[in-house]
Amino acid sequence: MHEVKVEQRQAALLRWFDAHARALPWRRVDLGGRRDPYRVWVSEILLQQTQVVRGTFYFERFMQAFPDVQALSTAPLEAVLKAWEGCGYYARARNLHKAAQQLAERGFPDTYKGWLALPGVGPYTAAAVSSLAYGEARAVNDGNVRRVLSRLWAEAHPSEAWVQQRADELLDRARPGDWNEALMDLGATVCLPKSPRCPACPLSAHCAAFASGEPGAYPAPKRRTPVKTVRAAALLIGDADSAYLEQRGGTLLGGLFGLPIEEGPPEEALPRLLKRLNAVSPRHLGTVNHTMTHRQITLEVYAAEAPVALEPAAGRPLSRLDHKALALLDRADVQGRLWSVPEAEGVD
DNA sequence: AACACGGGGAG
DNA sequence: CTCCCAGTGTT
User: Fold this and answer.
1) What positions of strand C are covered by protein, i.e. any atom < 7 Å from a CB?
2) Mind listing the domains of chain A with CATH numbers?
3) Which pLDDT score is estimated for A9?
């Protein structure tokens, strides 16, 4: 009885997928109908936190820079971050680089467990790569799957284990890769978070949330940690094209370059900056507001002079925060103000 | 179990 | 503007 319903759902969704699957660059297959595991892996890391429409642009740019695992594994980390620039969650790029070296040395794993052992590869990515590139019967559990399954059973508060169990039961073991992509495509294009398009859904006849009349109520929203407000000051030595840049350590924008920054209110942060860089003649350039996952940064940017080496900003990987800070100098009113300031002493 | 980690899109 | 979205790693 139960098996019959599972098979009906599988057939209905796969029929829909066969007609509506999106043609995406990482879905390209070779003459044997196989996908390049390298492309599948990179795309899945990218799509973890990036929407498909933007992910396509980043994917093509990354593949242009690093067409295969050999190219990626031998590149300097800075070049990898440059290819990832603007994409966010830069730990993904650092892990991609580290994992590439393991893949180049030991070869590609052909199982879920083998992929799971790589840095940056968790249960979702291991299931995606092993099913899509190797045909292993592993069910993915991502945000789309969670939402679709939550609605099919009208389970408002699905736990991770609950979703995984349902996904495992429902998985089409003859076509695991297609099944996983079908479920995720459905979530991305039909079973939308706010306004699900139930009339277009091949599973609406099997859907308890649809039957309830309020499909959008599932799953219930999760509580989120509030964003922290942070003040900081940055120093721009040079100009927007050629400036003094520092490489950041730690996990926050780690490995990326940017203007020297000190946290704290400007009256405290600016003197620290000036002292640290031996800088003089600070002028306030403007304020940059930038929101990150759990941070709302208000950055006061100052121009100053200091005995430091300038370099082309375009050659280094920069976060959007630093691009915004540099862009302050492109504004005509700022240019006018700067030109009206008397020349400072030499920077040699 | 809670949090850190960028950058988006929708309304 | 405000609200919402989301895998992996760390603690």
Assistant:
1) 1, 4-9
2) 2-217 (1.10.340.30), 228-339 (3.90.79.10)
3) 85
DSSP secondary structure string for all residues of A44-112:
HHHHTTS-HHHHHHHHHHHHHH--SHHHHHHS-HHHHHHHHTTS--THHHHHHHHHHHHHHHH----SH
User: Within chain A, which residues score under 50 in pLDDT?
Assistant: 1, 332, 339-348
Per-residue pLDDT at A339:
41
E strand or H helix that includes residue A298: strand A295-305
Report the distance from CA of residue A208 to the C1' of nucleotide C8 in Å, as an integer: 31
Residue nearest to nucleotide C10 (CA to C1'): A251
Nucleotide nearest to A144 (CA to C1'): C6
Distance in angstroms, CA of A198 to C1' of B8? 26
Residue nearest to nucleotide C9 (CA to C1'): A120
Q: What is the pLDDT of residue A346?
A: 33
Single-letter amino acid code for the residue at A273: L
Nearest to A125 by CA among A40, A60, A203: A40
User: Which residue numbers of A are catalytic?
Assistant: 44
pLDDT of residue A6: 86
Reported as a single tens digit per residue, the pLDDT across A163-221 is 999 999 999 999 999 999 999 999 999 999 999 999 999 999 999 999 999 999 999 98
Task: Tell me how far apart the terminal alpha carbons of chain A are, to the nearest angstrom.
Answer: 83
